[in-house]
């Protein structure tokens, strides 16, 4: 879905850090926030892909690319400190990084893979919040958005460890909202299948068939998710915290996942 109307520059003067932003939803979020006037620091593991993503965003004076592994505490601190040093603030944190190296029944799951999922999808998100609080938000306030999933709201049967990690992230969002208010707002968004490389295995064998299960009769796009994130970090959402907002084309309204 596209909109020919350029977004208002309501985020001008603010700085955002978006993790996992070399492609897909993270890159879409970074572009949306940039279009609304924010300065944006993007981070991801692979330097070449991250630099390519930064170049695609344009506006080099407002884009800063810092490669790093979200699962590494030192990399998280470096990303946050680098953002504040480069732009002078950190007003928005979008915890987008997520992995899913486990597929199939949990009873047969590799527990090392399950642990890795929780380490990156949950613990690293909390780690980024801690670093952002230390470096800027604790004294100045801000807004955090965590990238959850409809898999954290309903059982999937095939990506159970991923879904359980996203359910934990949703609870983490609520706890942090209670703890950090009123100056820091913390929300989550829960997408269904979005057309990205990360989710491609879920629709590659028949996109039309998968999309037919959705009342909107299409899969999501990074732009669909980015628009919701942009709203949640803006002043228009100033009385919203602790929420997990579905962006799922109506999928959960059908009673299925």
Automatic annotation (TrEMBL):
Q: Tell me which domain of life the UniProt entry assigns to the organism this sequence originates from.
A: Bacteria
Enumerate the CDD domains for this protein.
SDR_c
Pfam families on file:
adh_short_C2 (PF13561)
> What family classification does the UniProt entry report for this protein?
Belongs to the short-chain dehydrogenases/reductases (SDR) family.
Protein name according to UniProt: SDR family oxidoreductase
Q: Which organism is it from?
A: Actinomycetospora chibensis
Which lineage do the record's taxonomy fields give for this organism? Bacteria, Bacillati, Actinomycetota, Actinomycetes, Pseudonocardiales
């Amino acid at each position: 879905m596209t909109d020919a109307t350029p977004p208002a520059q309501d985020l001008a003067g603010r700085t955002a850090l978006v993790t996992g932003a070399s492609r897909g939803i993270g890159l879409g979020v970074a572009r949306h926030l940039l279009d609304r006037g924010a300065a944006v620091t993007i981070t991801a593991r692979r330097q070449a892909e991250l630099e390519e993503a930064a170049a695609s965003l344009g506006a080099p004076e407002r884009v800063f690319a810092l490669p790093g592994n979200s699962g590494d505490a030192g990399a998280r601190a470096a990303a946050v400190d680098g953002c504040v040093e480069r732009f002078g603030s950190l007003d928005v944190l979008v915890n987008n990084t997520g992995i899913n190296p486990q597929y199939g029944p949990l009873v047969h799951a590799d527990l090392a893979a399950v642990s890795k999922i929780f380490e990156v999808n949950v613990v690293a998100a909390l780690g980024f919040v801690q670093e952002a609080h230390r470096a800027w938000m604790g004294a100045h306030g801000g807004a955090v958005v965590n990238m959850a999933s409809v898999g954290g709201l309903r059982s999937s049967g095939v990506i159970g460890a991923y879904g359980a990690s996203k359910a934990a992230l949703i609870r983490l969002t609520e706890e942090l909202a209670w703890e950090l208010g009123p100056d820091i707002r913390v929300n989550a968004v829960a997408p269904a299948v979005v057309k990205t490389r990360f989710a491609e295995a879920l629709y590659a064998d028949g996109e039309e068939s998968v999309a037919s299960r959705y009342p909107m009769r299409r899969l999501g796009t990074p732009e669909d998710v980015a628009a919701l994130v942009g709203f949640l970090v803006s002043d228009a959402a100033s009385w919203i915290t602790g929420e997990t907002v579905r962006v799922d084309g109506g999928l959960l309204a059908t009673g299925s996942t």
